[in-house]
Amino acid sequence: MVNALAEVERAQGSEYTSFSVRGKRFGYHWPRTRTVGLKQLLSEQQALVAERPEAFEEQFTAGGFGWVVVYLDKVDVAELSELVYEAWRLSAPEELVAQVPFPW
């Protein structure tokens, strides 16, 4: 999924991989727990957690954004793709977003 996005930078931690665009973090992947953490609007974070707490949980809030933990075995590929794109879009400059419209 992230390969379809422009200028994604990966950084490997001991237990996770983080994803950024031009130095702005938008996501994490923890293979051991089969989860990802994704940047979202606060309203989207709250809606996801309220509607499907078995699939999503609040991770933290920062800079006006709400990060959400996504349990990969509880979402389908289409939904995950949309969430990843939205996380990237919230961090990417407008000219990059214009180059990579969703769906891809």
Alpha-beta classification: alpha+beta
Shape: globular
What is the count of helical runs? 3
Terminal Cα separation, in Å?
9 Å
Strand order of the largest sheet: 1-2-3-4-6-5
Quickly give the CATH architecture: Alpha-Beta Complex
Total count of strands? 6
Contiguous runs where pLDDT drops below 50 for at least 5 residues = none
Percent helix:
25-40%
Keywords: DNA-binding
Pfam families: YjbR
Protein name: MmcQ/YjbR family DNA-binding protein
GO molecular function, one term: DNA binding
List the helices and strands and how they pair.
Elements: E1 8-12, E2 17-21, E3 24-30, E4 35-41, H1 42-51, E5 56-62, E6 65-71, H2 77-91, H3 94-99
Antiparallel strand pairs: 1-2, 2-3, 3-4, 4-6, 5-6
GO molecular function, one term: DNA binding
Pfam family, one: YjbR
Protein name: MmcQ/YjbR family DNA-binding protein
Question: What does the model show?
Answer:
The chain has 104 residues and is of the alpha+beta class. It has one domain: Aspartate Aminotransferase, domain 1, CATH 3.90.1150.30. The chain is 30% helix and 37% strand. Strands 1-2-3-4-6-5 form a six-stranded antiparallel β-sheet.
